[in-house]
């Protein structure tokens, strides 16, 4: 999309001078308002079917400042805002931050994709699920945690020894996954045999059996368990090789 500084369009339906003068017919005037609904529906559909949860930017900063110089004054953001928090004043979109729910709809539908700001806590998939629930009157049936991307071993980067001769059978070479945390400042750095930590989950949120299983598993792989805020079980301390203890509010 090319920004045009000429004011040759006075009312809807007018043909820009550049389009009328184009001899090759390669230019075309498009009414952005006609495609806004399709853009927004496509965003909702993609958010509802996406396997990953990418967090969109939030219109927490002034939309007018973010789009200054590049806004095409189409009014898309005003049209798609579900709470009427955006008004186009003097050809610039302004956000009423008291009304804005930071849903990201204006960002998804904006044809120039310029608005930016702090990250929203609601990802597109969550927004789509909430809208489905409000329209259908029932919640989305899903297995807990099965619809979002979870950490896996592909996230671990193994750095090869570049100065060594490449082995013939790479799978036969030893691989050291040891990681030491706090080597610069800690008096007693924490050394782990695997770069995986057990998150802090309290006893009560997890059953006794779950807490003991995590402690035992962390010891088997040479990692570290975490008590969470719910206290430490005596058996948990016995089974865990290394244990992070939380107290007070964490």
- The chain-level mean pLDDT equals 72
Proper CATH architecture of the largest domain: 2-Layer Sandwich
Sequence of strands across the biggest β-sheet: 1-2
Please report the distance between the alpha carbons of the first and last residues: 50 Å
Cα shape: elongated
Number of strands: 6
Quaternary organisation of the protein chains = single chain
The computed structural class is: alpha+beta
Uncertain spans, ≥5 residues at pLDDT below 50? 31-66, 114-120
Can you summarize the main beta sheet? 2 strands, antiparallel
Estimate the helix proportion, in percent: 25-40%
Radius of gyration using CA atoms only:
27 Å
Count of individual domains: 2
The CATH class label of the largest domain is Alpha Beta
Please count the helical segments.
8
What is the CATH T-level topology of the largest domain? Alpha-Beta Plaits
Strand content: 5-15%
Task: Describe this entry's structure for a reader.
- The protein has 250 residues and is an alpha+beta fold.
- It folds into two domains: 30-136, Alpha-Beta Plaits; 153-244, no CATH class.
- The protein contains eight helices and six strands.
- Strands 1-2 form a two-stranded antiparallel sheet. Strands 3-4 form a two-stranded antiparallel ribbon.
- It is elongated, with a radius of gyration of 27 Å.
- 18% of the residues are buried.
């Amino acid at each position: 999309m090319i920004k045009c500084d000429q004011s040759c369009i006075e009312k809807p339906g007018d043909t820009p001078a550049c389009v009328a003068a184009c001899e090759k017919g390669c230019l075309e005037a498009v009414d952005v308002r006609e495609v806004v609904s399709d853009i927004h529906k496509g965003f909702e559909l993609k958010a509802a079917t996406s396997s990953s949860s990418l967090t969109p930017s939030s219109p927490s900063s002034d939309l007018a400042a973010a789009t200054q110089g590049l806004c095409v004054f189409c009014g898309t953001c005003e049209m798609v805002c579900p709470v009427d928090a955006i008004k186009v004043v003097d050809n610039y979109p302004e956000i009423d931050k008291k009304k804005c729910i930071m849903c990201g709809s204006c960002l998804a539908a904006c044809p120039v994709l310029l608005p930016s700001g702090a990250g929203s806590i609601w990802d597109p998939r969550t927004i789509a699920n909430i809208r489905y629930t409000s329209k259908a009157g029932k919640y989305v049936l899903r297995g807990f945690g099965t619809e979002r991307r979870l950490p896996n071993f592909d996230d671990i980067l193994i750095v090869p020894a570049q100065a060594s001769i490449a082995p013939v059978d790479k799978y036969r070479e030893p691989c050291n996954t040891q990681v030491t945390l706090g080597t610069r400042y800690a008096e007693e750095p924490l050394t782990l045999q695997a770069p995986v930590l057990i998150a802090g989950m309290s006893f009560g949120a997890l059953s006794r059996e779950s807490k003991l299983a995590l402690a035992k598993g962390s010891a088997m792989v040479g990692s570290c368990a975490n008590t969470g805020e719910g206290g430490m079980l005596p058996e948990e301390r016995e089974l865990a090789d290394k244990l992070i203890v939380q107290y007070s509010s964490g």
